[in-house]
């Protein structure tokens, strides 16, 4: 069942019919016959053909709906079916979406000044935007599947936490150090494993993420083990603390102290860090190193034939991604004031990777939208409690059906002679190591 | 064979486990000349290329590259990317290897990676946007534009390479190799899949590369009309060994060559003989 298989009504009905048939076979045993141990231990059973019929009908109808949606907004035949008006409207929205989003983000602390919950959520979303952008360098641009990105997040967080609690160094000194240390670990990991490709690389990076976590748990003297590090200093406004004291920023400015000040400050701090990541990535893409990353994703053998040192090129991608992860980690530590190994599980790596994939590998705007959708959506469905994961999973599956190359699947060229044309995602290679 | 040699291959051997792909092969390529390497399918031509360009480490023998300035480089000791970077040997592939998701222009920019990396101060200066890097980038775009013009693809500079027709992809791959500004250009069956008109244009392009730029070319080709027309020297291989070499005329009339082609593929043997008449 390829996306292109069902065109026209007969084909559509055929697909739906086949799906319904499969559902019938599966459900007639799974749902249609219910067995239970009777009172004397004998097997009793009864049939539920009504339910089976309902399920099969749902699959039949659902197949038609999904197939139609796929044809209307999906990659296959999208140009034919979407009316030109909608298309031009979409490209118009696309052009102004990023600036509008940016302006809105800058305004969030002003609009929602008193709503702590919204601000906290905004900080969380921005943290994942930054992590997504960082990982995007490795996965989206260089095409190296990294399942252990959280390791660098952890290195950054612990670097700041330990430097700040042990030596009392300020956040602004520790931030670059955290990034450098994370990049250093990125290179250290990269050296032995970058010979590996695809799935093998993914497995080794996954293991690396776990190893870092286990080292943190077991190196009790340094890291406090499972108890974590507490009392991590909060960030200061370039040396001026953001607290209630006489030397605090509020007192100095002569305004009344509010705990919101710090939240707002953190919000702008992570926004600035995320934008820095974005700016550097966009610039790097247009430099030879960024072009080499993308060329590496497209064809490694051709790169070597052109005299590109693939090992150092991969290492720089790994180190750059790791550095941004380290920055984000330092921010995480200063925001929480407390870190423990539990914050750095594989789930985090998977979440960030999901953001990158969902966003459309390589697309900065796509990653930001995906982070907003994933983290924001997760909060939105909080009221659904146990069904949250289910709804979430279904949403992911649907999106991957319609947009298998992510929300923004086009690639923008890094240099052009006359006109920059978006390159269809069908041509762009996905990372395979 | 006399004259100024750019490449000398001496007693080259390449084994894959029990398979002997190339055995005791010696030949030389002259500077600013087109040397063709021909032979029936499976003769070991691509394997020789892979040894020269460092994708395989030869099991035995030496490969020497002599630069214009007299510098001699032992290619069998260099790693793959260094052969392109330091020894200035560029190549194309039998099954085209472009960057399909990048535009034609981007493909040619990637080829100038090493020069641009130096100009961008290994990224740091480039990140700051220093004027020296901007100039270097502009020159790189000019060189790329020049090559797009030469291979007649200028109007498609901003199209994704993956969207190009087969013949256009072949030419773009040659342009990309030339953008590394090589001393020796190795082409693996550049005329494969081209129609007669495209083959003729290809011959012209290769001649212009030799005559105007003075780049030495090593060419693997099955299309005898191209080989006979443009080659200065031909080396014939079969089953991993050299069976003949000489000028197009000499090779064409060599009974061993005709036998080798007749033994494997009648059409090709006929092509060899017909191009002689
Ligand atoms: N990596 C490899 N591993 C094992 N055997 C190989 C390898 N590469 C080439 N060979 C073998 O070496 C022999 C020569 O192959 P090669 O590709 O060099 O031939 P060719 O002359 O380029 O043929 P064609 O005209 O079909 O391209 C073949 O028998 C092939 O199977
Ligand atoms: Mg071959």
Tally of extended strands of chain B?
Answer: 10
The 3D shape of chain A can be described as globular
Bound heterogens, unique: adenosine-5'-triphosphate, magnesium ion
Largest interface: A-B, 38 and 45 residues
Q: What fraction strand of chain A?
A: under 5%
Q: What is the radius of gyration of chain A?
A: 25 Å
Low-confidence stretches of chain B: none
Query: Looking across the biggest beta sheet of chain B, what order are the strands in?
Result: 6-7-8-3-9-10
Helix coverage percent of residues of chain A? 55-70%
Percentage of residues in DSSP E strands of chain B = 15-25%
Which key phrases capture this entry?
heterodimer, A: 433 residues, mainly alpha, two-stranded antiparallel sheet, two-stranded antiparallel ribbon, 17 helices, 4 strands, 68% helix, globular, disordered N terminus, B: 277 residues, alpha/beta, 6-stranded mixed sheet, 4-stranded antiparallel sheet, 12 helices, 42% helix, binds adenosine-5'-triphosphate, binds magnesium ion
How would you sum up this structure, described in words?
The complex is a heterodimer of chains A (433) and B (277). Chain A contains 17 helices and four strands. With 433 residues, chain A is mainly alpha-helical. In chain A, a hairpin with a 5-residue loop joins strand 1 and strand 2. The radius of gyration of chain A is 25 Å and the shape is globular. Chain B contains twelve helices and ten strands. The two termini of chain B are 25 Å apart. In chain B, the strands form two sheets. In chain B, strands 6-7-8-3-9-10 form a six-stranded mixed sheet, sandwiched between helices. A four-stranded antiparallel sheet of chain B has the order 2-1-4-5, with helices on one face. In chain B, strand 7, helix 8 and strand 8 form a beta-alpha-beta unit. Chain B has 277 residues and is an alpha/beta fold. The chains are: A mainly alpha (433), B alpha/beta (277). Chains A and B meet through helix 11, helix 12 and helix 13 of A and helix 2, helix 3, helix 4 and helix 6 of B.
């Amino acid at each position: 069942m390829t996306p292109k298989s069902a065109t026209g009504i007969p084909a559509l009905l055929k697909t739906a019919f086949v799906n319904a048939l499969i559902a019938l076979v599966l459900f007639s045993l799974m749902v249609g016959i219910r067995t239970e141990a009777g009172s004397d231990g004998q097997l009793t059973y009864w049939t539920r053909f009504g339910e089976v019929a309902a399920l099969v009908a749902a699959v039949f109808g659902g197949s038609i709906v999904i197939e139609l949606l796929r044809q209307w907004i999906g990659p296959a035949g999208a140009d034919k079916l979407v009316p030109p008006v909608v298309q031009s409207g979409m490209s118009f929205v696309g052009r102004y979406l990023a600036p509008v989003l940016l302006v809105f983000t800058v305004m969030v602390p002003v609009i929602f000044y008193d709503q702590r919950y919204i601000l906290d959520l905004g900080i969380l979303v921005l943290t994942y935007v930054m992590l997504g952008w960082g990982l995007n360098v490795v996965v989206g641009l260089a095409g190296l599947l990294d399942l252990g990105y959280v390791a660098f997040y952890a290195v950054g967080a612990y670097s700041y936490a330990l430097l700040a609690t042990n030596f009392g160094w300020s956040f602004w000194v520790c931030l670059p150090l955290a990034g450098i240390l994370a990049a250093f670990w990125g290179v250290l990991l990269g050296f032995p494993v970058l010979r590996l490709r695809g799935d093998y690389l993914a497995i080794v990076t996954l293991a690396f993420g776990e190893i870092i976590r286990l080292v943190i748990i077991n190196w009790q003297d340094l890291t406090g083990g499972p108890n974590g590090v507490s009392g991590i200093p909060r960030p200061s406004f370039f040396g001026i603390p953001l607290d209630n004291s006489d030397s605090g920023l509020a007192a100095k400015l002569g305004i009344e102290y509010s705990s919101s000040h710090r939240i707002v400050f953190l919000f702008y701090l992570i926004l600035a860090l995320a934008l820095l990541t974005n700016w550097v990535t966009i610039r790097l893409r247009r430099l030879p190193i960024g072009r080499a990353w993308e060329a590496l994703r497209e064809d490694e053998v051709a790169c070597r034939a052109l005299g590109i040192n693939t090992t150092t090129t991969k290492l720089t991608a790994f180190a750059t991604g790791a550095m941004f992860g380290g920055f984000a980690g330092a921010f995480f530590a200063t925001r929480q004031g407390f870190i423990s190994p539990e914050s750095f599980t594989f789930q985090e790596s998977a979440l960030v990777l999901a953001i990158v994939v969902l966003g459309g590998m390589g697309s900065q705007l796509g990653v930001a939208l995906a982070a907003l959708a994933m983290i924001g959506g997760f909060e939105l469905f909080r009221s659904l409690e146990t069904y949250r994961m289910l709804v979430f999973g279904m949403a992911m599956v649907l999106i991957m059906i319609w947009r298998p190359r992510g929300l923004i699947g086009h690639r923008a060229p890094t240099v052009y002679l006359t006109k920059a044309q978006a390159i269809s995602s069908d041509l762009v290679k996905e990372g395979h190591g | 064979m006399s004259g100024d040699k750019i490449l000398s291959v001496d007693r080259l051997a390449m084994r894959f486990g029990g398979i002997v792909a190339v055995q005791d092969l010696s030949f030389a390529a002259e500077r600013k000349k087109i040397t063709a390497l021909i032979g029936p399918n499976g003769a070991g031509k691509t394997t020789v290329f892979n040894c020269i360009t460092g994708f395989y480490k030869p099991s035995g023998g030496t490969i020497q590259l002599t630069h214009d300035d007299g510098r001699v480089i032992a290619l069998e000791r260099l790693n793959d990317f260094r052969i392109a970077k330091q020894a200035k040997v560029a190549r194309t592939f039998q099954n085209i290897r472009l960057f399909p998701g990048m535009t034609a222009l981007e493909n040619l920019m990637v080829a100038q990676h090493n020069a641009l990396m130096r100009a961008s101060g290994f990224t740091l200066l480039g990140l700051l946007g220093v004027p020296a890097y901007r100039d270097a980038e502009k020159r790189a775009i000019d060189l790329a534009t020049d090559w797009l013009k030469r291979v007649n693809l200028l109007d498609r500079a901003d199209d994704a390479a993956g969207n190009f027709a087969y013949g256009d992809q072949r030419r773009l791959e040659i342009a990309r190799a030339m953008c590394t500004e090589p001393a020796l250009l190795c082409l693996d069956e550049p005329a494969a899949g081209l129609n007669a008109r495209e083959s003729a244009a290809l011959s012209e392009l290769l001649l212009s590369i030799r005559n105007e730029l003075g780049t030495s070319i090593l060419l693997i080709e099955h299309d005898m009309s191209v080989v006979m027309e443009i080659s200065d020297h031909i080396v014939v291989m079969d089953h991993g060994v050299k069976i003949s070499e000489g000028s197009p005329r000499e090779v064409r009339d060599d009974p061993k060559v005709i036998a080798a082609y007749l033994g494997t593929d009648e059409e090709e043997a006929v092509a060899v003989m017909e191009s002689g008449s």
